[in-house]
Amino acid sequence: MKKLKIKQVKSAIDRPAVQKRTLRALGITKMNRERVVEATPQIEGMIRKISHLLLVEEIQ
């Protein structure tokens, strides 16, 4: 299964609570922190919802 490296590049301040909870569910707690996750449909859906806050790269 392919892996994705996600990094928060925009602040969650003044964002709806749903978006903050989605960041937390992805395991991102602070700015510029990176996390490697598997690209399941559930994870891809969460990334799509907050894509304006993230930088996403595919890892091989």
Q: Would you give an account of this structure?
A:
By secondary structure, this protein is an alpha+beta fold. The protein has helices at 17-25, 41-49, and strands at residues 3-8, 34-38, 54-59. Strands 2-1-3 form a three-stranded antiparallel sheet, with no helix packed on it. The mean pLDDT is 96.
Helices and strands in order:
Elements: E1 3-8, H1 17-25, E2 34-38, H2 41-49, E3 54-59
Concise synopsis of the structure shown:
The chain is an alpha+beta fold. The protein has helices at residues 17-25, 41-49, and strands at residues 3-8, 34-38, 54-59.
Features:
60 residues; alpha+beta; Ribosomal Protein L30, Chain: A; 3-stranded antiparallel β-sheet; 2 helices
Low-confidence stretches: none
Quickly count the domains: 1
Quaternary state of this entry equals single chain
Residue-averaged pLDDT: 96
Supply the helix-strand structural class: alpha+beta
The number of helices is 2
CATH fold type = Ribosomal Protein L30, Chain: A
Gross CATH architecture: 2-Layer Sandwich
Largest sheet: 3 strands, antiparallel
String of helices and strands:
EHEHE
Shape, principal axes of CA atoms = globular
- Portion in helices: 25-40%
What share of residues are in beta strands?
A: 25-35%
